[in-house]
Amino acid sequence: MSYADSLLGDGEQVLLRARQHWLGVIFDSGGALGLWLIAIVIVIAVRFFNVTGDLANLLGIAALVALGVGLLMFIWRFFVWTRQEYLITDRRLLQVEGILHKSVSDTSLIKINDARLNEGVVGRMLNYADLDILTASGEAAVDQFKMLQGAKEFRRTMNNQKNALEMGYVQDRLAPPLRAAEAPAPSPPAVAPVSDETTAQQSPAQPTTPLPAAGDDDESLEITRTLARLADLKTSGAITDAEYEAKKAELLGRL
Fold this sequence. Notes:
The protein is an alpha+beta fold. The protein has helices spanning about 25, 30-50, 55-80, 120-125, 150-175, 195-200, 215-235, 240-250; strands at about 15-20, 85-90, 90-95, 105-110, 110-120, 130-135, 145-150.
């Protein structure tokens, strides 16, 4: 089990796993590449200027040290890359990095407001792009994925699950309130038979006024609260204006 799997909640399902493109290992290994360049320059200089003796030996040792240190830096960067875990679950977006020191960032899918994709020409050919995740709290990116492999599929999966969560939330809010089961009407009490003369002396029965149906006020209150929640979802961008108007008309039709 990976480190990210140990962070999942009860019943939480992983929809997609990803990491940075392998080119990111090379682009982020600037220190290693610089040392390798120094080693190459030293070797070329020794050959070009025909350096011999102790100076040549000293320059050769310096070139080997630069080559070895650069190789160690590159190997370390490669292991960091292999420990990257970018997960989309049915609830949130999870980003885990680091080998000895773990850095964890997670964002609830329902709070994501926008996902900005920046894909260049080389990225389209090799299937990677930069992806910035924004929430409704501000314009600053909460999560940044540099050179994310399969960025378009990652973004599509995230948006699909986010929309599914939002529609499920709205449908739960729109569900009609459950009413208590009505008790069966009591049977009328037994009446002793009376004579026709007694019946004639009785006054005619007065019409009774029907009582309002039980639960109507509760249902109206629940519909009002649901409309307020829908307005909050529209303000935050969780649902569109068209979805809001459709659900609003549906609710008002119940009154």
